[in-house]
């Protein structure tokens, strides 16, 4: 048996041996995703061109064709012998010249990492010449999965934070936000609107801020860690700068949105503005009344949720507790530091949980459970097609759907949008693929 | 496409499908050598998507498998089953051979494929695993093909490109144990090689398929398009193959082992004129005559060529009154394509030639200054031959190009297949052929490509043209026309670090 099985009524499955068809990407992509949200940063992928192209495509196909700041270092076959430090230095110079960034981040990938390019040395030698901060991270594909790259990058960013700024009351940083998720920009607007309703302002978003804003992150009085992603950096800021943090759910649905606000206001020693919540709740009620027959129609259908640890638990909870769908399988494609605890502690809203499964085995499991609807990424298109099930694209990467309208999935407004998309996915299923 | 339809339908216009529009969206991303390179491994995995019952096993870290799911040619449509050996740091030191061996068994147990296609990555190439040995040592009841030195490099030499490396591995390894005596040869049968860049090769090769049948031959198989292992092992049944380049090792292999003849689409000397290649009426005539010569049926080939060309010319003639004598501005680089067809077959006159090498593919980027000058000369010679003597601009800025357009006032702009900013020309008040609609031109073979080029030119001349498309809200880069600021900055950095001496 390759899996551990345990816990009360819930089946937890984790692969003990090698995963051959992984559901997660490598460290490089985790780092690049974190850096992609720094509005004036350039990421240099010091690697063979395929790695650069892969990262760039993931971003460009995810509705970010206007904001590509990912360059390659032009690492060629002959550089495997002689090294590509000269190319890297040129790439740093050219990146500065063309983009005038606040931060240049060099990601040292598999090929140069194995052959031992002195990336740190190049970065040090360029610091006098280039009037921007330069950092380097080791992101060999063989080193670790994407979520580790994400955590390490956010933690590295704390090194640049200035502790001399005066604290601002009721000001927060949001940690764990990724600009390349579907609906990312409308989600962050909705989250900010919710916080503003409580008299709370957003100081910096890790990452959806300029480098200068990130450097001033310590002005905030509280860090919000969304779904657990970036927890390591929050802990670092707590240890180093005495900055408190709260762990919140990703605000999918009404309950998670309320819990989100409760966690944050509690962390700031504030009372929740109940009037705002009542208004939002009434708004949701009015919208649900318009389509309640459809919601009744999909009541208790069997679904699978396939996504990252920071958001999939919270979506599953919303689907189970609020829409009363039957979450047969919750597959965590890429975990974070709290995913395993969540899997053990909150088992009443899913039947089986798979943590970073082999994709083939995950698909088999889902096929065996009579799943009628899938919440996943573009990679689940074939599985959905085979099952004849609607696919709601909600997790990274979404490459076959664009998202540029101001229609969030997060928060109170997002609750309505999610319901609309879920029902429409069922109605439109005949044309899904 | 059923047999009857192929036999009876005389027209071969290409009807665009929604997937074609997706293709042109993804192809217009400035990758493919402009701001990034997918590398050989992308081509290699693309080939694998056109094989039946095949699982790709990438010998590399998880990221190599995950990112290679995203196909640069069909970005919206991931490659779903992409297994890997998930190499870790330990294997970069001690080697990953055992892991590869184990992975092959595991992959077989799970997927029960006919073929496991093992593709190397930079990491496995770099650590030097002797990957070929797994073909002997793995004890799985299916075929195992190993394609090494795939990596992420990109070469200008076709035989070293990913598509060729994997095709070579597949054909030579699967046919290694198939002796000539075991094959029932079919002297009227022909193989056709494809580039597997676009979906539905069958639809794109519909006309060529029909032409071959009319010559009394039949197609043994398209390589590759939805092939099983058995299909590949049946390749030697054919008497000859239509190949892109005869220097590909698999072509030489089939010739030596089975005596198979070949018809080369791009023979030496290459790109010696704008009319080079199997395009336009003459190009297809040449191709059919070459096939006829190999099979000793020159008479039949000539007859089919004449008849089929006449049918296409008749179809073309209904569009000529709308095109003849109209002036065009051709924006392009080293290939003639549909722009050349409009001049040589439709009587359109070129007033302005704008050569842009910066925003083309990596082939354009690899041209040195002498080659660019030669390209300009070839275009000039071509236009003189067809009674045009256009002004020629090489790598102009947008401002320079606009000034020249206003001076020459062409009736129609004909942009290149990858330059999709037709809106920019239309905003300036110039009617423009929409290149997306002909993006598959170079991936089809037949007379009707000319008819389709004429239809699109006529469509562009006759359709209302908006001077205020929303797309014109975008700012184009002055140096890299067709790209926005971010992409142009990426392209500038990429061009320098990749193509220039660092």
What's the topology here?
The complex is a heterodimer of chains A (433) and B (502).
Chain A: E1 11-14, H1 27-36, E2 41-46, H2 49-60, E3 70-72, H3 79-82, H4 85-99, E4 103-108, H5 110-115, H6 119-126, E5 133-138, H7 146-157, E6 171-175, H8 184-196, E7 201-206, H9 211-215, E8 222-226, H10 231-241, E9 245-248, H11 253-267, H12 274-297, E10 302-307, H13 309-322, E11 326-332, H14 339-345, E12 352-355, H15 359-368, E13 373-376, H16 381-387, E14 391-393, H17 411-427
Parallel strand pairs in A: 1-12, 2-3, 2-4, 4-5, 6-7, 6-8, 8-9, 10-11, 10-13, 11-12, 13-14
Helix pairs in contact in A: 1-7, 4-6, 7-10, 8-17, 11-13, 11-17, 12-17
Chain B: H1 3-8, H2 18-27, H3 40-48, E1 54-59, H4 62-68, E2 82-84, H5 89-94, H6 97-111, E3 115-120, H7 122-127, H8 134-137, E4 143-147, H9 162-174, E5 186-193, H10 201-204, H11 206-214, E6 218-223, H12 229-233, E7 238-243, H13 249-258, E8 261-264, H14 280-295, H15 298-317, H16 320-323, E9 327-332, H17 337-344, E10 349-355, H18 362-365, H19 369-385, E11 391-394, H20 398-408, E12 412-414, H21 422-427, H22 448-462, H23 485-499
Parallel strand pairs in B: 1-2, 1-3, 3-4, 5-6, 5-7, 7-8, 9-10, 9-12, 10-11
Characterise this structure.
The complex is a heterodimer of chains A (433) and B (502). With 433 residues, chain A is an alpha/beta fold. Chain A has three domains: 11-17 and 284-431, Nitrogenase molybdenum iron protein domain (Rossmann fold), CATH 3.40.50; 27-144, Rossmann fold (3-Layer(aba) Sandwich); 171-277, 3-Layer(aba) Sandwich (Rossmann fold), CATH 3.40.50.1980. Chain A contains 17 helices and 14 strands. In chain A, the strands form three sheets. A six-stranded parallel sheet of chain A has the order 1-12-11-10-13-14, with helices on both faces. A four-stranded parallel sheet of chain A has the order 3-2-4-5, sandwiched between helices. The radius of gyration of chain A is 22 Å and the shape is globular. The mean pLDDT of chain A is 93. By secondary structure, chain B is of the alpha/beta class. Chain B has three domains: 8-12 and 180-309, Nitrogenase molybdenum iron protein domain (Rossmann fold); 38-153, Rossmann fold; 317-490, Rossmann fold. Chain B has 23 helices and twelve strands. Chain B has helices at residues 3-8, 18-27, 40-48, 62-68, 89-94, 97-111, 122-127, 134-137, 162-174, 201-204, 206-214, 229-233, 249-258, 280-295, 298-317, 320-323, 337-344, 362-365, 369-385, 398-408, 422-427, 448-462, 485-499, and strands at residues 54-59, 82-84, 115-120, 143-147, 186-193, 218-223, 238-243, 261-264, 327-332, 349-355, 391-394, 412-414. Chain B has a four-stranded parallel sheet, sandwiched between helices. In chain B, strands 6-5-7-8 form a four-stranded parallel sheet, with helices on both faces. In chain B, α9 (162-174) packs parallel to α13 (249-258), α14 packs antiparallel against α15 and α17 packs across α22. The model of chain B is unreliable at 1-8 (pLDDT under 50).
